[in-house]
Amino acid sequence: MGGSERKHPATLGLVLAGGRARRMGGAEKGRIDIGGATILDRALARLRPQCDRLIINARDPARFAETGVPVVADSLPDYAGPLAGILAGLDWAAEHAAEIAWVVSTPSDCPFLPHDLVARLHQARAEVDARLACARSAQRWHPVVALWPVNLREDLRRALADGVSKVMEWTARYTVGIADWPAVPVDPFFNVNTPEQAAEALRLAARYPDA
C-alpha cells in the first residue's frame, strides 16, 4: 500500500530491539524463527505497508544491518529502557524525516502484529483528541505498542533526565487513546520472552498461518 492510499497521517515505524533478553539467556529474541521468518522480519513485514519509513532501535547499530533498515542507538548511556528507545525514534524522525509527525513503536518480540495497527492507533487517538494512543488486548495494555507525536520529544527527554523510566509513568501525564483488539484465536501482541513462549508462538503460527 502506498502512502497516498493510506487514510492516516505519515508515520514512522519504530521496532524496539534494545532489550536484554534475560529470560532467553541473552539470546536475540528477534532472530527466533517463527513459521519460516524471524520475529523481527515478521514485525517489519507487518509494519512496512502501514508506515512511510521504518527504523530499528538497538544499542549496537551494527546489529540487524542485514535488514536494510536504519538501526538507531539510544542517545542515553547504559540501558535506559524502552522510553530511551522511543526518544531515539522521535529524535531520528525530527532529524531525518521532518515530513513525519508520528511514530508507532512496537517491540521486536511480537510475531503476530496486526495489519491495521497504525490506522487503529491513529483512529483511537483522534476519537478522544488525545496526545498519544496505546494498544490493548484482553483488557491488557501494551505500553510500547503505541503512537507518539514527534513534538513530545523534548518533554520525554526532560522526563528521562528527571528519572522517569517506565512508559506508563510518563504517558500518565497525557490523554491516551486506547485501541482494542481481540485476543482470540491469537493475541496480536503475544510476545516471546521465554523458550516456552517461543514454542507456543511456533504452534500458533502453524495453526493460524494468517495471524
SS strand fraction: 15-25%
Unreliable parts: none
Order of helices and strands: EEEHEEHEHEEHHEH
Per CATH, the superfamily is: Spore Coat Polysaccharide Biosynthesis Protein SpsA, Chain A
What would the average pLDDT be, to the nearest integer? 91
Instruction: Tell me the radius of gyration.
Output: 16 Å
**CATH architecture descriptor:** Alpha-Beta Complex
* Fold-level CATH name: Spore Coat Polysaccharide Biosynthesis Protein SpsA, Chain A
Helix content: 25-40%
What distance separates the N and C termini? 19 Å
Describe this structure in words.
By secondary structure, this protein is an alpha/beta fold. It has one domain: Spore Coat Polysaccharide Biosynthesis Protein SpsA, Chain A, CATH 3.90.550. It is built from six helices and nine strands. The strands form two sheets. It has a seven-stranded mixed beta sheet with strand order 5-4-1-6-8-7-9, sandwiched between helices. A two-stranded antiparallel ribbon has the order 2-3. A hairpin with a 2-residue loop joins strand 2 (33-34) and strand 3 (37-38). The longest helix has 15 residues, at 82-96. The model has no long low-confidence stretch (mean pLDDT 91).
Question: How do the strands and helices of this protein lay out in sequence?
Answer:
Elements: E1 11-16, E2 33-34, E3 37-38, H1 39-47, E4 53-57, E5 71-72, H2 82-96, E6 102-107, H3 117-127, E7 132-137, E8 140-149, H4 153-161, H5 167-171, E9 176-181, H6 195-207
Parallel strand pairs: 1-4, 1-6, 4-5, 7-9
Antiparallel strand pairs: 2-3, 6-8, 7-8
